[in-house]
Amino acid sequence: MTNERLLKRTIVKEVIHSRHLQEDRTLRIYLPPGYNEVLSYPVVYCQDGEEFFNFGRIATWANQLILEEGYEPFIIVGVEVNTKVRTEEYAPFGSRFDAYLSCFAEEIIPFIEEKYPVRRDASERVLAGDSLGGSVSVHLALQYPELFTRVISLSGAFYEKSQSMISIHSDLSWLDVYMIVGLQEDSYATDTGVYNFVELNRTTRDLFEERGATVSYSEKDGRHIWGFWQKELPDALRYFLKAE
Fold first, then answer.
1. Are residues 134 and 157 in contact, defined by beta-carbon separation less than 8 angstroms?
2. Count of domains observed in the chain
3. Using CB atoms within 10 A of its CB, is residue 218 exposed (0-12), middle (13-18) or buried (19+)?
4. Which CATH number is 178's domain given?
5. Please, are residues 197 and 157 in contact by the beta-carbon 8 Å criterion?
6. For residue 2, what pLDDT is reported?
7. Which DSSP string corresponds to 100-138?
């Protein structure tokens, strides 16, 4: 990962005003090597956009996949979040949850699609998130299946409310979820309580599979931190993106 060409990257910042959230929202957009507006690209949308770039090193991983492993170039859109209201936006019991889903699907997606040459088919969009970012990505897909069918969940925070919202769906055969959780996440303290993320993810995997979803599921040694997720990101991206 020390190769200098992997560290050269184009990241553009955009700010959009959300009428759903009644505030501005910052987006970080990674443009792949050889970016050309005449072409069209698959796109990965990340919750916790700043952390995916800073701690997940997703732009460097993307360069490696494209430049060294022959993957088709893709665009990444990181949606930033104010950590003070993150739970309110990402958790289904949060006061800003509905507004955040609407902002994402009805404001951010059209903005990106108008300004960047991203493909508009659901099979060419991937949602990615860690912890509550993983669960809110699933909720986006459940609410907007015409937009999103592919989700990367890194140690998803699938609390009871999320599980009950998944369980009301009888057919999830259109959904494809990449799930990973760390075995040392069995008693993780969050701002809403202490949770066994391993059990939460096992139960949620079963809910998905019982409803016909495609699930790639794994458990590995790891804690609920970016040090674990960063190493798992390349495989998660490889799962959904195509080598040329």
1. yes
2. 1
3. exposed
4. 3.40.50.1820
5. yes
6. 54
7. HHHHIIIIIHHHHHHHS-B--SGGGEEEEEETHHHHHHH
In the numeric block, the tokens 């955040």 are attached to 100
How much is the pTM? Answer: 0.96
DSSP code of residue 185:
-
pLDDT reported for residue 244: 74
Q: How is 20-58 classified by DSSP, letter by letter?
A: TTTEEEEEEEEE-TT--TTS-B-EEEESSHHHHHHTS-H
Identify the burial level of 124 via C-beta atoms within 10 angstroms of its C-beta, where 0-12 means exposed, 13-18 middle and 19 or more buried.
middle
Token pair 């190769």: residue = 3
Question: What is the domain extent for residue 223?
Answer: 4-240
Tokens of 121: 């088919």
Q: How far apart are CA 212 and CA 240, in angstroms?
A: 18
Q: Which two tokens stand for residue 163?
A: 């599980």
3-state secondary structure of 58: helix
3: pLDDT strictly greater than 80: no
Q: At residue 117, what are phi and psi to the nearest 5 degrees? A: -80, 60
